[in-house]
Amino acid sequence: MDAGGDRVLHSTNIAVIREVYDSEYSQHCFSVELEKALDSCCSYIVIEPTQLGDETARWISFGNYLHKTAVLSGITSIISGFVWPQSFTPQAPLSILSVLCTGLYTASWQFDHCVKYQVERDPRKLARLPVLGALTAASPVVLVRKDDTRRKILHCTVSITSAALCIYKLYCTIK
C-alpha cells in the first residue's frame, strides 16, 4: 500500500481499506476507496477505519432487516389469508408492511454495490483470510461478496403474492 491510502488488491481478490491518516480529508478518502473496492467487485473487503466500517456494517444490517421484515410479514400475511379467509384484519396490514419494506429495499439498495456484500463475523472464516495478520486495526469489518439474486426474487415474490391475495380477497368481498 502506498502512503496515499490506496487500497491493496491481492491476488486472492481482497481489498483492504487501510487506516492511514495523512490529511484532514482522510475520512473522505476512505469512503472513496471503499467505493472503488465495491465497484471492482472484490470477493472480500477489509475495512480498517472504525467509523467507516461501523457505518457500512449498519447499512448492510438495515438492508438485511428490511429484507427479513418483507419476507416474514409477507409469508405471515399469506398464511393469515388462508387461516382467516373472511377477515382482512391480520392480512392487509402485514401485506402492506411487506410491500413497503420491499419497495424501500428496492429503492434504496437497487443501485448500491453494498447490497452484494454481507458482514463476515465467523472467526473461523476470518482466520482463512491471508491479510488479517498484517492489519493495523484491532477489529476491522470484513465484507464478503454474496450473490443476492435469490433473496431479491424471494422477497419480491412473497410481497407480490401477499398483495395479490389481499387484492383478490378485497375484490371478492366487493363483488
Automatic annotation (TrEMBL):
It is a multi-pass membrane protein. Keywords: Membrane, Mitochondrion, Mitochondrion inner membrane, Transmembrane, Transmembrane helix. InterPro entries: TMEM11 (IPR026120). Coiled coil: none annotated. Plays a role in mitochondrial morphogenesis. Belongs to the TMEM11 family. PANTHER family: PROTEIN PM1, TRANSMEMBRANE PROTEIN 11, MITOCHONDRIAL. This is Uncharacterized protein. It comes from Exocentrus adspersus.
